[in-house]
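Entry type: protein chain
Record version: 2
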Amino acid sequence: MRFDRQSGVFLHVTSLPGPHGIGDLGDGASAFVDFLADADQSLWQFCPLGPTSPAHGNSPYQSYSAFAGNPLLVSLDRLVERGWLTDDDFQPVPDFDPHETEYGRVAEYKLPLLRTAFERFEESATGGERSAFDAFREREGDWLADYALFMALKGEFDGALWTEWPSEVKTREATERYRDDLAEEIRFREFVQFVFDGQWRDLREYARDRGVGLVGDLPIYVALDSADVWASPEAFLLDDDNEPAAVAGVPPNAGDGGQRWGNPLYDWDRLRETGYEWWLARLSRLFDLVDVTRIDHFKAFDEYWAIPADADDPAAGEWRDAPGDDFFETVERELGDLPFVVEDLGFIDQSLVDLRDRFDFPGMKVPHYADWCRAGDPNQPMHYPENSVAYSATHDTNTTVGYYRNLPDDQRDCLHYNLGIDGGDDIHWSMIEAVWNSEAVIAFAPMQDLLGLDEHARFNAPGTAEGNWRWRCTREGFDPGVADHLAMLTDIHIR
């Protein structure tokens, strides 16, 4: 799929403003779409939308499901509009920090209110509402039934990892009995997904009406503690006890010892035999929710690093071949155009480049990785190829202001020279303009860069477990002056 020259802003949904401790699919999301439209932006990018786990620091890349939506993103105000909650139900509203998400407090506050909404729905829903719920359950049943049962079982077994559940549940031999025993809890979980789905589709229509496309994120791997692995063990490299035989990560690189992520790997041979049925279902669901998809860790579709499950050292792993062309040809044949942009950072070799270019997928470019004193460095914005997606910063990097302040003096001087600026008073706008002016077909800036925020607003620091995914924007951040300035740059650089 070829893209038009355009630009957008990265802001994860949790970072939106709102009264209940976390960004949601209500008024804060609509206000951000309005901000994007005022700024003449075509795209809104965010992290994966799945339900997150406190055990993994609420990382959106370690979700309980690759199909479900995060219950914490449901707008309570929209449930009032439906008549399933009242303003009185909210009281007292905790004194949430407007600048960061406190996931534990948010869950303690919101989840009981979602249960109240469910009870009201069961008591008073109209015939049309019940029919809509039934239609949703039927349409999404292939993943919804297993996800709802999985989450009900998580509650039944005190949140334990599913590999620690009783043997007959771990291996799904007793699922029908538990479907009966936990029927009400399962229906509640299905109701929350029904509400999320409806609110998301309303938001997508609102964005589409204002010329804003939604850019979702596809983590290459899923969490071990997920409905995906529990319900479809045949899709993964598991041993006879349904435990991972090998896990994902990356090998040592210059300056680091590699990473052991611990996610289960795919059984690509088995998946190929099924025509990639599990993947087609996953992508079909995602394509139904977003307009463009960023593939995280694209390298693993070419070849992947497999670490023995009993090894702690990432260096103990080995490269194994992934399906590459066959996978994407199958997806294109079954689902049509491939609206992918790909994260091709890190282990870039010729086979990765060849796979990316055969399908015309734009790769990522980030100026934070540039050597500013090296002539022709490919990470400098003036050298970005047309078929690329350029970012002033990403969710995994420092903000541009934080990055600039940490640069060595010689790199800072070379940056000034290359960007044609005298200093760093407005370095965030200087970097954004350099990215917008580049040949890259798509340009992005995170909201933190538009506001000129420093390192305290960094969203995620890879390799750390605490303090990530928490930053939030207030409503004041949707400043008309900021929107006007971004619109001017977008017009000047024909995006």
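Comment: The chain has a mean pLDDT of 96.
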